[in-house]
Design a protein that fits this description.
This protein has a single domain (37-289), classed as Aldolase class I (TIM Barrel), CATH 3.20.20. It is built from 11 helices and 9 strands. It has helices at 3-15, 18-26, 65-77, 88-96, 130-135, 154-170, 195-206, 225-229, 247-258, 270-273, 280-289, and strands at 40-45, 83-86, 104-108, 140-147, 174-185, 188-191, 215-219, 236-239, 263-268. Strand 5 (174-185) and strand 6 form a beta hairpin. The protein is globular and about 50 Å long. The two termini are 28 Å apart. 42% of the residues are buried.
Amino acid sequence: MKDDDLRRIIHTRATEPAAIAEAAAKRPRPTSLLGEHGRLMMIAADHPARAALGVGDRPFAMADRADLLDRLCLALSRPGVNGVLGTPDIIEDLLLLGALDGLVVFGSMNRGGIAGSVFELDDRFTAYDASSLAAMGAQGGKMLLRIDPHDPATVSTVESCGRAVSSLADAGLFAMIEPFWSRRVGGKVTNELTVAAMTRAVTVAAGVGNTSAYTWLKVPVVPDMAQVMAATTLPAVILGGEVSGDPDAAFEAWRSALALPTVQGLVVGRALLYPPDDDVAGAVDTAVSLL
């Protein structure tokens, strides 16, 4: 991204805030969630709003907004990428850059579970809601649903996700739920990436809301994905998760999961935006090739 682009974003935000809504109204919309390859291939960038800024051994990698936007624009420009997931600030920056034309847009909804906080599992809806997503021409909303049976804050998050799924469906928008079975280890929230834990999480997520007609699941790869995905008929996408020290192994795990009938694509963020060799285009192209 050129310095002029960054200055233009800052100037527009300071002097013409209505330009954001105008850009959203003029944006060419996709006709389907699926790209020409018949899959959904999205780049995720909603981590900063939850103070999850680290990538590998770089604790503030995602804190440089110009660098993040540069990586995002490159990733979104690659053939086969047909969508993006982000919070309002990031989506609006991309709108002002003209980087979202024809792409599927999912807005991140609950970012109140700040990483490392004592209230992390009471994950309040602090970003998009159904009405704002509809107004800006998004195709859906994404929510994080972490379930800790020993943390009473979990139930409020489950209830909030249920209301969000219902309101999105009422507006004809898709809900993308990212479920985990979680627990605190040494005070830190840890997601249990086992077959049993993910099967429980998937079955809970599939049942929230007053309809599942517009619900998709966003799930991590675990050792026996076939058993996990056998727990539901809902369409699912595979998430990338933390940046792996062995990207080839991660790509192979994604490839295997994509062979399952309910898995419709990939939604990957840090693993493609901040690959170990910093070759964003190469990492994205490899992921697209798996489809």
